[in-house]
Design a protein that fits this description.
Number of helices of chain B: 8
Largest interface: A-B, 83 and 82 residues
Structural class of chain C: mainly alpha
Number of strands of chain B: 7
Radius of gyration of chain C: 19 Å
Radius of gyration of chain B: 21 Å
Helix content of chain B: 25-40%
CATH class of the largest domain in chain B: Mainly Alpha
Shape of chain C: globular
Order of helices and strands of chain C: HHHHHHHHHH
Distance between the termini of chain B: 65 Å
Structural class of chain B: alpha+beta
Oligomer: heterotrimer
Largest sheet of chain C: none
Helix content of chain C: over 70%
Chains: A alpha+beta (662), B alpha+beta (254), C mainly alpha (223)
């Protein structure tokens, strides 16, 4: 297989370890006087967007940043719980840049690009330095130095954290840097604005069309480069751990304007989420993977065992992860843990009223910590009750906020009864295809963070999303964008009177008018639910050719129904969340079709993509490296029409192996 | 639907900032106790759309209590009857069958209503822009472990930094004061060595911006902290007072 | 605006002024209550008049009295300014407000309690302090305050007004004492208990002491 001539990843020559440092020191620079005349548009203000906008402004570029929320501080990076990886080796447990690189490639089931991942591992340490300097209050040991915890898919402790709110603390750090620039006037912030199209002129991206969500006004914004930092598209499944507003619209518009979409079918199903409680459910809530450090996952050995979890004796419990994967146990990567839970539930061993849940049990951890406390305090004859109380206190300190949240949502006390968890859509590894510079196939149009496809292959390791978002924003784009902008210094200010802007604006308005004109019977919300049901059942944790083919047909029908039967209340001239929702759902429907097409194309199982036809006798994923070691980059050719371009993945520094956590 | 609770709702409706608003009454049947408060509003909105009425606009995003976007004044309290909980994490099991629930937007001069239950909280962003940061450009940083920070200070800073910027403190305060919000950020950075260089100027500028936004002063009633979904402590306000007074009387800024 | 007036007119500066003048007025209450309590010697006002004479004629005390008047004025004017800006901060009120769930009524009613105290202050000073000082100014002679008290507190309405004034003082102090420390930034886990205890004790003891004076005279316990 050869890489398509339409794809040039622009990976620098030379040995892997020195690619980035060499490239960084040879990439063209823009002098400060010219930077002042170059405008950069940043869409999305999560970790990637906020860090990029702030850093580019610090460098002297004129930056405009957009977010659909009422403040950049609300981007969904804020909800990340567990932590952020970095190859600091502070724990002296054998970590290194190479090991983080290796773990990430292996965790991604050998479907990520070596050069990008190595760069990510290289800059991971700088991220921690930068965040600490910005005042992020990471957890610390009594000696005053940073604390680490372990995460799934690794055997070292390299995860930095701030209780169960790491994403919040990192985002607020990046946000404060962004607000500093806003205060200085170097970043112009547009809150409650949604990007509804990108504008290309002569083959280069030159700006965006955005809608002011308060007034409904359609605005044109010109820039020399546009950065899409708009997050993932997990909400295509309707139920996911994403925020209600998380959407694919920006990335999808870029895709329809020429940016190829990479690996759309690679979605991550997170193993530890609070199970669905009923029809009304609007979103799912994650219980951090860090809980798997101390929690043990099990189901009853007997089918349909209806006793409460804490009354089932030890001997009648099946700790299936420890049984199947003794080396990693409860800390296997997410895709494997999720599939194992589904396998047990499908086989009839699930718990709770829905039977679609497994237990995550802290009783053993409570006892272990309780004894630890007793030893620490030199108490040798402690009662069981005391040990339990001390153990619970330790667990509370480590995971208190997560336990509280669980109790709040389910009404059950996880200190007393084991938590019930079930997998849920969490993250999308796929996204806009980008080269080494993070530029899409449209010159001047970049994609950062979860919105691009680049670093996690077919499965992302826990605590790596925060790392990638900040790496892209703080340490990659500030260098790589020079490669493009150095040749733009003679362009001059981008005029938004150009016919391309006029045309794009007219198209956006036409689409909004159409949505409002249909006045059918079904709300955007109900269309979203229908799409989610198709996607979850046929393109979810397990997929097969038959189901995917059906799904494609059903989604096409759904799209037709949508455009003839959607009912959008209100008008376009004021704050109208229903209209925003309709716009987003329309794009999700189109994306859903492409995801199924991609999943159908990939006749193998790898990472988060599990095709039932391709598994070992033990039910493990069966990769096909000979035929599918490529990135799928889909080019949009028209309605229901895509062309596949392949980027061959070449591993020069890693020995490809069957991924085993046994 | 799967639930059997029946509720009467009185919801504030206002078409835009300048329009006069008023309460509308709605009836809901089949509410499940397992629903979140916002899911109950989803049900209401679906019902309104079916009746050809415009749904209620309300702010919400993560629905897991961390983004700080949701903001409802429920039966006279921000985020409803429970302590330490955001509206999105409030579940209907906290209400009884047959209850009447009154829902209003945050009320403050500095938080104008945009529509229905949605308010404009840009004032908070401007307060942060005034000084809620450490001026460190990307790339300036030294090795993270070269700066040991006592665990206690780090923990206290974290407790203050846990603020989600929802504005419940302003909503709860009889003076619509933003002091809990502002003090949480001032405290976080005053407690950490990284924040020392700009400690004085930060306190001066953030407080000045807070006042310029039209928030009220503090009467130390403690309502803010009692209603804060992240239970940010009143100690932070005391610390801010110290920081501000100390800065004003000692800094060289005239 | 100079940095100084800018500081004192900021939201925190106004609170600083309230706290400082409040604590100053609290210290005045200690003196006032102590000297007035001399009537409980029940010696026909001899001890009381001795100290009353000292307070009314000692040049240092007389100078400090100007500070006291200033303290009252600043506390009152600053309070009114705060009341105005705090009211402006919420132009549209809540239709339903369950403030009892998160704070005490008296902490939310400092303006109201302060206004009641101001009314009481006007009545109280017009009973004693103003006539006495006017007479001193006009004739150089002090009035017999003890005798005036005995006469004034024969009227049950006056006694009732004084008792109500003391009740307002109790609630005002119960929040104000602790609140002043918080406004000054004095909130520390080691000392909060002590501040709270002293504050509560002070708020109870001083108003009771004051209230006992008109009551005792009215009931004839003190003659």
């Amino acid at each position: 297989m050869a890489t398509s001539s339409r794809l040039d990843a622009r990976i620098p020559q030379g040995p892997l370890e020195s690619k980035w440092s060499k490239y960084r020191s040879s990439v063209p620079l823009v002098n400060p006087a010219n930077k002042r005349n170059l405008e950069i548009i940043v869409v999305g203000t999560g970790l990637a967007g906020a860090s990029a906008a702030a850093t580019l402004a610090e460098l002297g570029y004129k930056v405009k940043a957009f977010c659909f929320q009422d403040s950049p501080r609300r981007a969904h990076s804020i909800a990340a719980q567990g932590g952020i990886n970095a190859a600091k080796n502070y724990q002296n447990d054998g970590d290194s840049v190479y090991r983080l690189f290796y773990d990430t490639i292996k965790g991604g089931d050998y479907r990520a690009r070596e050069a990008n991942v190595h760069r990510l591992a290289e800059v991971s340490g700088n991220i921690i330095d930068q965040c600490v300097a910005a005042g992020v209050p990471f957890a610390r040991e009594y000696g005053g130095l940073l604390s680490n915890r372990s995460f799934g898919g690794t055997q070292v402790q390299r995860t930095f954290y701030a209780a169960g709110q790491t994403g919040q603390q990192l985002l607020l750090g990046a946000y404060s840097g962004l607000q500093r620039q806003v205060g200085m006037g170097t970043v112009k912030m547009y809150n409650r604005h949604e990007m509804l199209d990108v504008v290309n002129i002569d083959g280069k991206c030159r700006g965006i069309i955005a809608r002011n969500l308060i007034t409904g006004e359609i605005e044109r914004h010109g820039g020399h480069a546009v950065l899409l930092c708009t997050g993932g598209y997990g909400n295509v499944f309707y139920l996911s751990t994403n925020a209600m507003g998380s959407n694919v619209t920006a990335a999808w518009k870029a895709h329809k304007r020429g940016a190829f979409f990479g690996n759309p079918c690679f979605t991550q199903i997170h193993p530890t989420c609070i199970p669905v409680s009923g029809e009304h459910q609007s979103k799912l809530t994650l219980m951090s993977e860090s809980l798997r450090n101390d929690g043990r996952i099990w189901v009853p050995k007997k089918k349909d065992d209806n006793r409460p979890g804490n009354e089932i004796p030890e001997g009648e419990r099946d700790y299936y992860l420890e049984r199947r994967y003794p080396a990693f146990g409860n800390l296997v990567p997410r895709d494997i843990a999720s599939r194992a839970a589904k396998e047990r539930c499908d086989a009839g061993y699930g718990v709770g009223t829905s039977k679609l849940a497994v237990y995550l049990d802290f009783a053993a951890a409570v006892e272990r910590y309780g004894r630890g406390e007793a030893n620490k305090n030199n108490i040798h004859n402690a009662s069981d009750a005391d040990i339990t109380a001390w153990g619970k206190a330790v667990v509370k300190e480590k995971y208190g906020n997560l336990f509280d949240m669980y109790k709040q949502i389910t009404g059950e006390d996880p200190y007393e009864v084991p938590m019930r968890i079930y997998p849920a859509v969490h993250y999308t590894m796929g996204g806009l295809w980008v080269d080494y510079n993070l530029m899409t196939t449209v010159p001047g149009l970049y994609s950062l963070g979860e919105a691009n496809f680049s670093d996690h292959g077919a499965n992302r390791l826990g605590a790596s999303a925060l790392m990638q978002g900040l790496a892209d924003g703080y340490f990659v784009i500030p260098y790589t964008i020079g490669n493009y902008l150095a040749s733009e210094i003679r362009t001059g200010k981008i005029s938004t009177d150009h016919e391309a802007f006029v045309k794009a604006e007219a198209e956006v308005k036409e689409r909004i008018d159409t949505l409002l004109r249909i006045q059918g019977k079904t709300s955007p919300e109900l269309f979203h639910r229908r799409l989610g049901k198709i996607m979850w059942e046929k393109c979810g944790m397990a997929r097969n050719a038959q189901g995917l083919k059906e799904a494609i047909e059903e989604i096409r029908q759904l799209r037709k129904d949508f455009w003839s039967d959607v009912k959008v209340m209100g008008t376009a001239n004021y704050f109208n969340p229903e209209l925003d929702k309709a716009n987003r759902v329309a794009d999700f429907i189109e994306l859903g079709e492409l995801m199924c097409i991609d999943a159908l194309d990939r006749n193998e199982s790898c990472g988060g993509h599990f095709r039932e036809e391709y598994q070992t006798e033990e039910g493990e994923a069966l990769r096909d490296d000979e035929n599918y070691m490529y990135v799928s980059a889909w080019e949009h050719k028209g309605p229901e029409n895509w062309e596949l371009h392949k980027e061959e993945l070449i591993y020069e520094n890693i020995k490809i192996a069957q991924r085993s956590y046994k | 639907m799967e639930g059997n609770m029946r509720l009467s709702l009185k919801v504030w409706r206002q078409s835009n900032t300048d329009a006069a608003g008023g309460f509308e009454d709605y009836k809901l049947d089949n509410v499940s106790p397992d629903m979140s408060f916002l899911e109950m509003f989803d049900v209401l909105n679906e019902q309104l759309i079916e009746e050809g009425k415009e749904p209620v606009a309300f702010d919400h995003d993560c629905r897991e209590g961390i983004c700080g976007m949701c903001s409802m004044y429920i039966n006279g309290r921000p985020h409803g009857p429970l302590r330490g909980v955001t509206t999105c994490q409030l579940h209907m099991r906290s209400f009884k069958d047959g209850d009447t629930i009154v829902v209003e937007p945050w009320r403050a001069q500095a938080f104008p209503v945009i529509k229905d239950l949605v308010v404009d909280r840009d004032a908070f962003d401007r307060v942060i822009s005034a000084g809620g940061f450490v001026s460190v450009n990307t790339g300036n940083a030294q090795d993270a472990n070269s700066l040991p920070i006592a665990k206690e200070a780090a923990d206290d800073a974290f407790a203050a930094a846990a603020c989600i910027g929802c504005g419940a403190c302003v909503a709860a305060c009889k003076n619509a004061s933003a002091m809990l919000f502002v003090s949480a950020k001032i405290s976080q950075l005053a407690l950490l060595p990284q924040g020392q260089a700009e400690r004085s100027i930060r306190a001066e500028k953030m407080v000045a911006q807070m006042d310029a936004e039209g928030f009220g002063a503090c009467t130390n009633t403690g309502a803010c902290s009692a209603e804060c979904p992240k239970e940010i402590s009143l100690e932070n306000i005391a610390r801010m007072n110290r920081e501000y007074i100390g800065a004003k009387f000692s800094s060289s800024a005239v | 605006m100079s940095w100084f007036s800018q500081t004192l007119t900021s939201s925190i500066g106004k609170k600083l002024l309230m706290a400082l003048t409040g604590l100053f007025l609290i210290s005045f209450l200690v003196i006032h209550a102590t000297i007035n309590a001399m009537i409980f010697y029940n010696d026909g006002g001899e001890t009381f008049s001795h100290w009353g004479h000292f307070m009314g004629t000692n040049p240092i005390i007389r100078t400090l009295e100007i500070g006291l008047v200033a303290g009252f004025l600043i506390h009152i004017i600053d309070g009114l300014m705060l009341w105005k800006s705090n009211r402006d901060a919420r132009p549209v009120k809540y239709a339903v407000n369950n403030a009892a769930a998160n704070s005490t009524w008296y902490s939310r009613s400092m303006g109201l309690l302060g206004t009641l105290l101001l009314i009481f202050l006007v009545i109280h000073t017009s009973h004693f302090w103003i006539p006495n000082r006017s007479n001193q100014f006009a004739t150089g002679e002090e009035l017999n305050l003890y005798q005036m008290m005995l006469e004034t507190f024969q009227n049950p309405v006056v006694v009732l007004i004084y008792v109500l004034g003391c009740v307002s003082l109790f609630w005002h102090l119960l929040h104000g004492f602790k609140s002043a420390f918080q406004s000054l930034g004095l909130n520390h886990v080691k000392y909060n208990g002590a501040i709270s205890f002293v504050g509560t004790a002070f708020s109870i003891i001083v108003p009771i002491l004051f209230a006992l004076m008109p009551i005792s005279i009215y009931l004839g316990w003190v003659k």
